């Protein structure tokens, strides 16, 4: 496996990014959300054993995750890290509850050795440090996956990644294959129920089961999913139509993983 180190924050185009990263289609692209390695390690008890133990634990996790990929293929591994200062991109949409504010508590134990763990991981593949003005690790993975025609492998535990069509390796031997329609359904269900982990409220009383019942697998068209979301927002929320619309658009853009460096969520266009 080819190891090299690369640091860059932002590009003007995906073509430019692929060129710099050495992605040319001759190898199968593997996009790793390394945030799911860095922060669980930095918050774990292993840090009590010192920085070297934490670094080795993180590298072991990366190795284990990559070990679930099918054998025999030639891979181009790209790790993606959310940079300090994030999430500046999503700040522009916030009108209600601050994004991820629930993670900033006085009593929470701060993560240890984040910089050192990150540096240890970057020694094992091409690595991207995200520009906070563009997005977070899952945004970059979504952008690169959208423009890679060879069908990328997506490695990471973050449930938000399930918006992205492709083969997802989530720590088990069998990958989860996500189609375009499944990715869209996941996003619109999220709009209904929000995301407690990121402090995005969604609609009161709507959890995973209700969201799935409202947008079942039999719904295939994106505009149908959107119509259901709009009706539920109008039915379950108080306020003027402008207030409800603002809340819906805020929630959608906080949840949505970007498909391009200048992309953001917009309502689907009805295509008959």
Q: Can you tag this structure with a few keywords?
A:
10% strand, six-stranded mixed β-sheet, 272 residues, alpha/beta, 6 strands
Tell me about this structure:
With 272 residues, this protein is of the alpha/beta class. It contains 10 helices and 6 strands, in the order H-E-H-H-E-H-H-E-H-E-E-E-H-H-H-H. Strand 5 and strand 6 form a beta hairpin. The longest helix has 16 residues, at 51-66. The chain is globular and about 55 Å long. The model is unreliable at 1-5 (pLDDT under 50).
What is the secondary structure topology, with strand pairs?
Elements: H1 14-21, E1 28-33, H2 35-42, H3 51-66, E2 75-81, H4 88-91, H5 114-122, E3 126-129, H6 137-146, E4 153-155, E5 166-169, E6 176-178, H7 180-193, H8 208-214, H9 222-236, H10 241-255
Parallel strand pairs: 1-2, 1-4, 2-3, 4-5
Antiparallel strand pairs: 5-6
Summarize the structure.
The chain has 272 residues and is of the alpha/beta class. It is 39% helix and 10% strand.
Question: Helix- and strand-based class?
Answer: alpha/beta
Helical percent range? Answer: 25-40%
Number of strands: 6
Strand coverage percent: 5-15%
Q: What is the string of SSEs from the N terminus onward?
A: HEHHEHHEHEEEHHHH
What is the count of helical runs? 10
* Largest β-sheet summary: 6 strands, mixed
The low-confidence runs, each spanning 5 or more residues with pLDDT under 50, are 1-5
Euclidean distance between termini CA atoms: 47 Å
Shape: globular
**What is the CA-based Rg, rounded?**
19 Å
């Amino acid at each position: 496996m080819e190891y090299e180190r690369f640091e860059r924050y932002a590009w003007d185009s995906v073509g430019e990014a692929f060129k710099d990263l050495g992605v040319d289609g001759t190898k199968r692209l593997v996009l790793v959300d390394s945030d799911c390695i860095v922060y669980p390690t930095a918050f774990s008890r292993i840090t009590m054993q010192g920085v070297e133990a934490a670094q080795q634990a993180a590298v072991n996790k990366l190795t284990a995750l990559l070990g679930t990929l099918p054998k025999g293929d030639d891979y181009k591994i790209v790790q993606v890290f959310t940079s300090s200062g994030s999430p500046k991109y999503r700040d522009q949409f916030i009108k209600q509850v601050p994004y991820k504010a629930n993670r900033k508590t006085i009593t929470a134990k701060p993560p240890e050795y984040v910089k050192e763990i990150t540096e240890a991981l970057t020694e094992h593949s091409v690595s991207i440090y995200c520009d906070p003005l563009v997005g977070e690790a899952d945004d970059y993975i979504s952008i690169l996956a959208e423009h890679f025609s060879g069908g990328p492998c997506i490695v990471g535990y973050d449930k938000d990644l399930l918006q992205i069509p492709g083969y997802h390796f989530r720590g088990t031997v069998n990958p989860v294959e996500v189609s375009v329609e499944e990715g869209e359904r996941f996003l619109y269900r999220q709009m209904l129920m929000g995301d407690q982990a990121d402090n995005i409220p969604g609609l009161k009383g709507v959890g995973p089961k209700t969201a799935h019942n409202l947008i079942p697998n039999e719904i295939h068209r994106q505009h149908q999913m959107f119509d259901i979301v709009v009706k539920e927002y109008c039915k379950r929320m108080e306020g003027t139509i402008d207030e409800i619309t603002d809340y819906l658009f805020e929630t959608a853009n906080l949840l949505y993983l970007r498909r391009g460096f200048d992309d953001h969520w917009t309502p689907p266009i009805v295509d008959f």
